[in-house]
Design goal:
Helix content is about 40%, strand content about 10%. It is built from 16 helices and nine strands. The protein is an alpha/beta fold and about 425 residues long. A nine-stranded mixed β-sheet has the order 7-6-5-4-3-2-1-8-9.
């Protein structure tokens, strides 16, 4: 196993207090034991051990994502020192490295943009829809909405960055899809992504808290996304907006796995680890949703290699998250597209990760809808060896299937370790 990306939690505090945040508001309190900022000692270990990992695995490119908390709470010297040191040392080993920052945008200034241009750091900004819906969840520590300040920072970034910023949005299905989509267009961005609300069987999606999610008719999240997809697909030639979740599914449907695979979908290995401010090496941050201290594994960049961290049970499960699947998932007709969804959405205390995603029904409906729309738009010559399938057909297939008569995968016990 190997990785080609590290998410660096360079600041363990945030100037916002988003209601859905897995770092601060979903039961994991380990951030309170973390240093507020990442030290020079940790930085040096990160760079040196990342180079060693690249050499061991014959990698010629590596990506660092500056994250938090809110990464702009760090000072400008931090970024200058990190990037210059990384570029110098990686270059000696003939390895290139890329840098990305994910920020809430509140602290963006022309000076920050000048720094990012000089250091070639690509910028992503978090924004959760139009004003009323963003300010419902993306609030500060006094409960005030953040939309106006984020838009102010976004405009600064759009006017000053050489590489224009993209938007990352945790969608809320209580919003109006048409208004939400129009807001995407009005923002004037070329790259946009929609994130599924953080949830699993212990912390259900808001819309399913009072609903039986095993009922195939309950596809509220897919129903909302389908409305966004239809608007985007009908207008994408005009708007030229890239929406990652939809393009990823389309690429997977067309067998372009390298462009379609990510944490949510596909069959590719997850090749990312997280490093906390104290140097702790962990699997995906969203796994904090599974319990207080759930991601802690005693691996630290000061004393362990990246390969050591990958050999922990949770990191291995996350790494193989799209192939270490429940019995139901392995039998699904669209498993090569869905890949079981993000690992954290499958968790239940009773049996760990030996479950289909809490969003399983939504995945089925969304993916089959996109498949059918794309299929209908293809030239006839490409339709000869392809068949459409509907969500109803998949649900009927599972209703007729007796899972108890089918052997579990060899790795099934490993899914229940947690």
């Amino acid at each position: 196993m190997f990785i080609n990306c590290l998410v660096l939690k360079i600041a363990s505090r945030c100037n916002l207090n988003c209601t859905y945040c897995y770092m601060y508001n979903k039961g994991d309190n380990t951030y309170l034991l973390q240093p507020k900022f990442m030290s020079t000692e940790i930085i040096n270990n990160i760079i040196n051990k990342s180079i060693k990992h690249c050499i061991e695995n014959d990698l010629n490119n590596f990506t660092f994502v500056f994250h938090g908390g809110e990464p702009l709470l760090c000072d400008k010297i931090f970024f200058t020192d990190f990037v210059q040191k990384a570029n110098t040392l990686f270059k000696k080993s003939s390895i290139t490295c890329d840098f990305i920052i994910q920020t809430n945008g509140l602290l963006l200034t022309e000076e920050w943009c000048e720094l990012f241009n000089r250091l070639r750091i690509r910028v992503g900004i978090s924004l959760d829809g139009y004003k009323e819906i963003n300010d419902k969840n993306r609030i500060d520590h006094k409960g005030r909405g953040s939309y106006d300040k984020i838009i102010f920072g976004l405009k600064i970034a759009q006017n000053n960055l050489k590489q224009k910023p993209g938007i990352l949005s945790v969608f809320d299905i209580s919003s109006n899809p048409k208004k939400y989509y129009q807001n995407i267009v009005d923002l004037g961005v070329s790259h946009f992504n929609l994130l599924w609300p953080y949830a699993n069987y212990e912390q259900l999606p808001d819309a399913y808290c009072d609903t039986n999610i095993t009922n195939n008719s309950n596809t509220l999240y897919a129903d909302w996304l389908i409305q966004i997809f239809d608007l985007w697909y009908a207008n994408k030639a005009k708007t030229q907006i890239s929406i990652t979740i939809f393009e990823g599914i389309i690429n997977l449907l067309l067998n372009n796995t390298k462009s379609g695979g990510n944490e949510d979908f596909g069959t590719e290995d997850n090749r990312t680890l997280v490093i906390e401010t104290n140097g702790g090496l962990e699997a995906a941050g969203a796994l904090k949703l599974c319990g207080n201290g759930f991601t802690k594994n005693n691996a630290n960049i000061k004393t362990n290699s990246i390969s050591d961290a990958l050999n922990t049970d949770l990191a291995e499960l996350y790494h193989k998250g799209h192939t270490y699947l429940s019995k139901k998932c392995t039998l699904c007709p669209i498993v090569e597209i869905c890949g079981g969804g993000h690992v954290h959405t499958r968790y239940k205390k009773d049996n760990g990760f030996d479950n289909a995603s809490v969003y399983c029904n939504d995945f089925i409906k969304l993916i089959t809808h996109i498949q059918n729309i794309v299929f209908d738009s293809l030239p006839e010559k490409y339709k000869k060896n392809a068949d459409k399938i509907t969500a109803n057909e998949i649900n009927q297939y599972f209703n007729q299937l007796n899972l108890d008569t089918i052997n579990a995968p060899a790795y099934a016990d490993n899914l229940k370790l947690f």
